[in-house]
Amino acid sequence: MSTEEFVHIPSRASEGLDEAPSITVAVQAGISPRLYNSDLAPTTREGRHWSAYSIFSLWANDVHSLGNYAFAIGLFALGLSGGAILGALAFGALFLFLLLTFSGFMGEKTGVPFPVMSRIAFGVHGAQIPGLLRGIVAIAWFGVQTFLASQVLQVVILAVAPGAASLQEGAFLGLSALGWITFVALWIVQVIIVSYGMEMIRKYEAFAGPIILGTFVILAVWVLVQSGFQINWAPHGTAEGGELWLKMLGAASLWVSIYGTFVLNFCDFTRGAKSRKAIVKGNFWGIPINMLFFGLIVVILAGGTFEIDGTVITSPADVVAAIPNTLLLVLASLALIALTVAVNLMANFVAPTYAFTNLLPRHLNFRKAALLSAVIGLVITPWNLYNSPVVINVFLGGLGALLGPLFGIIMVDYWLIKKQRINVPELYSTSPVAEYAYSRGFNPRAVIALIVAGGISLLLTFMPVFESVREFSWFFAAGLAAVVYGVIADRRGPFHDVPAGDIAVTPTH
C-alpha cells in the first residue's frame, strides 16, 4: 500500500447527466475503493439541504400510511377506546421521538449512510450483515407496498373506464393483465424518482406531505358530516383497570416496533440534515404532534363510520370506496397512491439501495443499486409473497426480529462505548490497524451479541408460549442486545474523533 491512494469517484458527467468534470480525490493511505464511492462518502456541510420541514414531511407521509391506519383501527377490536388509542400512540410517539432523534444525530455528525455507520460497531466488512438484513426486508416490503398501491390504482381505472374490467380476467404468474399494467406503472414511477437520488426523494416527500394531510382532513370532515358529528369512541367495548393499561402499553410497544426498521437507517436521511436543531424540530412536529393528529383521524374515521352504518372500517381505503362522487373518489384514491409511493420510497427503497452500493461500491452507484433493488422487488412477484402467510410471517417476521438487536448494538457502541468519537476517514480504511478493522474487518463481539439477542428475539416472535409478551419483543430484544454488547465490548480504545475532511463529497443528486 502506498502512502497515498487515489480513488476515482465517478461523477454524474460520466453517466451523461451533467457537465461537471470527473472528480478524482486524493485520500490518505488505506482508504479503499472497496469501501468508498461518491454515494457512500460523507456529505459536506454545504451540501446538506434537509431542513426541519424536510424531516417533518417524511413523517407526514410515513405516519399516515395505510398499514398504520389498519394497525391503529385494529386496536378498537382489542378493547381500546378512542381515548386509550390516543394514549397508546402518545406513549409510542414519546419513545420514537427519543429513539429517532438520537439515531438521527448520528447521521448529522458523521454524514454517512447506514451501511457505513454500521462499520463503527460491526467492522468495515461486518457491516454487510446489518446492511443486508435491513435491505432484504425493505426490498420485500417495497414490492408488497407497490402491489397494494397498484390495487388502489385499479379502482381508479375501473371508476373512469369500467370496460377495463375485462383486463382482470385470467392471470400470468398470479397477476391479471390490469394488475401487471398498474404494478409496472407504479414501479416505473418509483424507479424514476429514486434514480435522481436523495434530493429528488426529499422534494417528492415535501410535495406529497401537504397533499396527504389535506386528504385525511377532508376525509375526516366528510365522515363527521355524514355521521351528524357523532362519534362512537368504543365500537367494540373497552377494557378496564390493569388490563387496559397493559393493552395500551402493548399497543405503544407495537407502534414502536413498526418503526423498528426506520430507526436503524434514519441516518440515511439525516446525513443531509442542516443541523441537529433541524432534526429535533422536524421530529417534534412529525412524530408526537403528527402522531396524535393521526390518532384523532383514526378515531373520527372508525368511530364516525360506525355511527353511520354500524360497521368498523379496516382502512381509510374503505372510506374512499364509499364516496358516491366518481371525481372525488378518483382524487382521493390518487392521493392514497401518492401516499403509498412516498412511504415506499423512504421506508423500503433507500435502505436496499445503500446496502447494495455498500456491497459493491466499485461497480454500483446509487442509481444502479436502486435499479437492482427495484428489479429484485419485481422478480420476487411480491403479490404472491403477500398472499402467503408463511412467507410474510416466517421469513419477513424472522428477519424483522433481528432488527431490534441491531439497533441496540449500534446505539450502545456509538453513544456509550465510542461516546460519539468517530474517526470518519477510517470507516473507509482496509488497513489492519485501522480503528474499525477489528478482526479481519469483523467485530466478533458485535456478532456474538447479535446471535444471542437475535436468537432470543426469534423465540419471542415464534414460540406460542411467549404470545402474551410478544408486543414487547422489540424492546426486549434491543435491550438485551444492548446489555450483552455493553458487557463484552472492547472499551480499550483509544477512540479518535476525526472529521471527514477531504473525503467528504457534496451530493450532486
TrEMBL record:
Signal sequence segment: none
Source organism superkingdom: Bacteria
Keyword annotations: Membrane, Transmembrane, Transmembrane helix
Compartments in which it is found: Membrane
InterPro entries: Pur-cyt_permease, Uracil/uridine/allantoin_perm
Family the entry assigns: Belongs to the purine-cytosine permease (2.A.39) family.
The protein, known as: NCS1 family nucleobase:cation symporter-1
Lineage of producing organism: Bacteria, Bacillati, Actinomycetota, Actinomycetes, Micrococcales
